[in-house]
């Protein structure tokens, strides 16, 4: 089994000073809404691995058996743009939104690599998702296309049958579902969302139903 636990003090930057290849992280998700835990993971991984950039990649329709309901993509995209506006390390990859429908990681990454052959991709997932990798579509082919980065989570193993770069990121117990519930119930979301995202949600009257 593969197990590589890298912390900020241990990890060596991946950037190759003599190479023209770009090193890019990908953090996929519904981002309904994007919150501080998403941004912390993206920023921490980007700095820990010395990546050129980390792209947040919103899903069009999540490819899950337990289908998730979500708001219009235009709102999720607008909130992402507001959330990353002051961080040059972070950017948005709209590929799956532009494609529409259900997208699988293997198909998405195969196309992104075809479009950007000079880029090495680091696909970021939570430690709780690592055990589900055997069920991912074309996983054996996918691990040949990307480097998987696992975020340590309490109670989950840091070993896998697949090569995983493990990164230790400060744990923020925030979820989009929890935020939607708080907003609907009229509770405070201060210090859980970027202020610009919070203001956008209030302006557009999102998550009140």
Overview features:
209 residues; 7-stranded parallel β-sheet; alpha/beta; Rossmann fold
Topology of this protein?
Elements: E1 5-6, E2 22-29, H1 36-48, E3 53-58, H2 73-84, E4 90-92, H3 95-99, H4 105-115, E5 119-126, H5 127-130, H6 139-145, E6 147-151, E7 164-167, H7 176-184, H8 195-204
Parallel strand pairs: 1-7, 2-3, 2-5, 3-4, 5-6, 6-7
Helix pairs in contact: 2-8, 4-6
Protein described:
Catalyzes the reversible adenylation of nicotinate mononucleotide (NaMN) to nicotinic acid adenine dinucleotide (NaAD). Keywords: ATP-binding, NAD, Nucleotide-binding, Nucleotidyltransferase, Pyridine nucleotide biosynthesis, Transferase. The protein has helices at 36-48, 73-84, 95-99, 105-115, 127-130, 139-145, 176-184, 195-204, and strands at residues 5-6, 22-29, 53-58, 90-92, 119-126, 147-151, 164-167. The chain has a 7-stranded parallel β-sheet with strand order 1-7-6-5-2-3-4. It is 34% helix and 17% strand.
Number of strands: 7
Terminus-to-terminus distance? 46 Å
**CATH C-level label:** Alpha Beta
What order do the SSEs take from the amino end to the carboxyl end, as H and E? EEHEHEHHEHHEEHH
Quaternary state, please?
A: single chain
Provide the CATH topology.
Answer: Rossmann fold
Proportion of β residues? 15-25%
| Uncertain regions spanning at least 5 consecutive residues | 1-18
Helix content: 25-40%
Mean pLDDT: 90
Number of domains: 1
- The SS-based structural class is alpha/beta
The best one-word shape is globular
Give the biggest sheet. 7 strands, parallel
CATH architecture annotation: 3-Layer(aba) Sandwich
Q: Within the largest sheet, what's the order of strands? A: 1-7-6-5-2-3-4
What is the CATH H-level superfamily?
Answer: HUPs
Organism: Enterococcus sulfureus ATCC 49903
Protein name: Probable nicotinate-nucleotide adenylyltransferase
Keywords: ATP-binding, NAD, Nucleotide-binding, Nucleotidyltransferase, Pyridine nucleotide biosynthesis, Transferase
Catalytic activity: nicotinate beta-D-ribonucleotide + ATP + H(+) = deamido-NAD(+) + diphosphate
């Amino acid at each position: 089994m593969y197990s590589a636990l890298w912390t900020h003090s241990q990890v060596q930057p991946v950037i190759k000073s003599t190479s023209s290849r770009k090193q890019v992280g990908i953090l996929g998700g519904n981002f309904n809404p994007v919150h501080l835990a998403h941004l912390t993971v993206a920023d921490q991984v980007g700095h820990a691995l010395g990546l050129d950039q980390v792209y947040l990649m919103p899903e069009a329709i999540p490819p899950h058996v337990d289908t998730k309901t979500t708001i219009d993509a235009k709102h999720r995209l607008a909130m992402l743009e507001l959330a990353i506006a002051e961080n040059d390390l972070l950017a948005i990859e709209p590929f799956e939104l532009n494609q529409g429908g259900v997208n699988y990681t293997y198909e998405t990454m195969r196309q992104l690599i075809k479009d950007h052959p000079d880029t090495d991709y680091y696909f970021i997932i939570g430690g709780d998702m690592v055990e589900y990798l055997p069920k991912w579509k074309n996983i054996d082919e996918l691990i040949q296309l990307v480097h998987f980065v696992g975020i340590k989570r309490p109670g989950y193993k840091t070993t896998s049958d697949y090569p995983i770069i493990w990164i230790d990121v400060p744990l923020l117990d925030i979820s989009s579902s929890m935020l939607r519930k708080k907003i609907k119930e009229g509770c405070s979301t201060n210090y859980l969302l970027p202020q610009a995202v919070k203001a956008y949600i209030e302006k557009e009257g999102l998550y009140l139903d």
